[in-house]
Write a structure and sequence with these properties.
The chain contains seven helices and no strands. The protein is mostly helical. The chain has a single domain, classed as Orthogonal Bundle (Helix Hairpins), CATH 1.10.287.
Amino acid sequence: MRVAILCIVLLASANAMTLMEKYPLNFSTKRSIMTLMAQVDEKIKAGGPYDAITRILDEFEQGIQDEQTKHNELHAENQASCAEEISFRQNAVREAEGAIKEATVTLEGCESQLNRAKADLRASENQLANTRQSLGILERERIEQHEIFQKDQIAYDALINGIAEALQIVEELRSGSASFVQMTKHTNKLMLSAAQTRSVAGLTSIMSTLVQVQSAGNADAMWSDLTGRFEQFREETIAKKQASLDLEAEQVAHYNTVKARLTATIQKLTVQIENLQAEIAELKKCITIQAGLLSSAQAKLTRNAALLKSANNLCQRDIESYEQQTAARRDELELLVAIKHKVHERYAQIDNEHGTIDRASMSGEEIQNSYENASAYDHQTFQG
């Protein structure tokens, strides 16, 4: 008997040590194979009934089954939580990736538009400066033209008046009440006015005729010719004065047209520059906002990617732990079946030797049930 019990204890101890090495679990607060062996050994030594021993073994088996049931429930809850957490983190990663893509596209667009707006602003500022310069040149030219016009008008008026006086002197010379010296002095004055009006050539021919009249004496034909030349010169001067007036009118009209166009261009460019400056300010805000969104999205991606990896690792460790502990319980049941078999063999041996065993309490059905429990566990009746 002691040899049989020793074999059972050794078998149980060996299997228990193997389990501890394969699955380093701590069941010290729940159950112990070694304690179970001690109880069985004690019952056998005391000559206890077979059903008392099987009750201990059944309770031990029920403890394994109850623990596995609770572990199944906890594992199912953990896996549901894992699936929920992983799905949540995957969605967060996708959202972050989408936000990064959107912020990047928008940021690049704002930067591109900012460069374009800055180039347009530089071009508009240069065009505005050139237009203002052109307007300044136009205004200075108009001032110069008007000054020339005023001087010409004064000179034309002086020349016309001087011609009228010269005609008067011609009549006086013809009547003998004036001298050629007086005429010479007057023509010198006319020469100054003619020079201002660019009419010296017309006066030069008159002076030549005057010299001829002075040499020819009192010849009516010469006097008529001289008078005619002065009158023609006056008509030409009047015509030049009118041409000067017409030119001034044309120049004023041209000035007003060009000034209006340049002024409108300046106003348009000024508004355009203001709009571009406002656009640049908005684009800078866009860049700042999108850069912030991009940074936030990148941080969200990094954070959720790390949390997703951690969740995957944690859930995988839970699966591995569940499988290890389930396998450990399966091995416990296998060991328990072996122990029950040895106990049955021992009591059968005692029965053969002494004929005192209660067969009703150690029927083959009980032994078969023990095997079936282990087989059911192996076939995952308790879903592991």
